Amino acid sequence: MQVMSTPQRWFQTFNNVLMILLALICVVPLLHVAAISLSSTEAVMANRVTFFPIDITFNSYLKALENPAFLPAIWISIQRTVLSLVLGLMINCMAAYVLSKGGGRDGIAGYKLFVSLFVVAMLFNGGLIPTYLLVTKIGLYNSVWALVLPGLVNVFYLVLIMNFFKALPKEIEESAFMDGANHWQVFFNMFLPLSLPVLATVGLFMVVNDWNEWFAGSIYMRGDNVPLSTLLKSLIAVPVVDASNVNDIAKINNRSIRAAQVLIGAIPILLIYPVLQKFFTAGIVIGAVKE
């Protein structure tokens, strides 16, 4: 076992303390929201709730699910996330496979032009108003496709996947071509199965971004036909309580309802992230390094 020097021990201690502080910054607000959502009205209104619920009750969750727009918003978010994940991974992977061949005699024609176009698209975009006019003009307004199609191609994801493809052994591809395989067969049967770490990493980025992004829903969707993140933003910014039901107001504090809604919206990401965590480090490191 290698003995660390004094500077190394100080550096290790500093890293440990820093990681603990960062973990607390992430976990403490979540614990506070969960405690509020599970606490009684009296405890919440008296500001006695910190990190542990007081007088545990699930009334806030029942009231949150009674909102007629809540479950449809969850369904729209699921559609958006699944469609963006499947189509986005496929399109970015196919583009990354082509660009991973490079230019020159054995590469693709116009390689530098395509790379330049992707770089320009990464640095600049058409702007909010032109994008809105385009989405409206082609009939995507107030449909889930307005949330999916504009963001399918992401140059950052494409570069990660492309560099991962470049790091794969050339002998695998060459042996497949010698056996009579074409590019489609190499792509689907060899490159994709070998690229699980980077696909899981990029997929995690996509899921988190599409599930949490609220701005597009506020622009391209109307009424109650909005994703969950947009609905939560509107509920938190402008809380609404049904004043006609006095009993519900007496039993449930509006702050508890908002906390329950936020926690319900965070549950899918909290469940997905640990599953993909083991692929995250390998995918981001290998995909970010160009050999």
From TrEMBL:
Keyword Cell membrane part of the UniProt annotation: yes
GO biological process: transmembrane transport
UniProt cross-references to Pfam families, sorted A to Z: BPD_transp_1
Residue ranges crossing the lipid bilayer per the database entry: 70-99, 111-132, 144-165, 186-208, 259-276
Keywords of this entry: Cell membrane, Membrane, Transmembrane, Transmembrane helix, Transport
Gene3D superfamilies assigned to the protein according to its UniProt record, in alphabetical order: MetI-like
Membrane topology of the entry: Multi-pass membrane protein
GO CC annotation terms, alphabetical: plasma membrane
Superkingdom per UniProt: Bacteria
Chief subcellular location: membrane
InterPro entries: MetI-like, MetI-like_sf
ABC transmembrane type-1 domain location: 74-276
Subcellular location: Cell membrane
Keyword Transmembrane helix: yes
Similarity comment: Belongs to the binding-protein-dependent transport system permease family.
Name of the protein in its database record: Carbohydrate ABC transporter permease
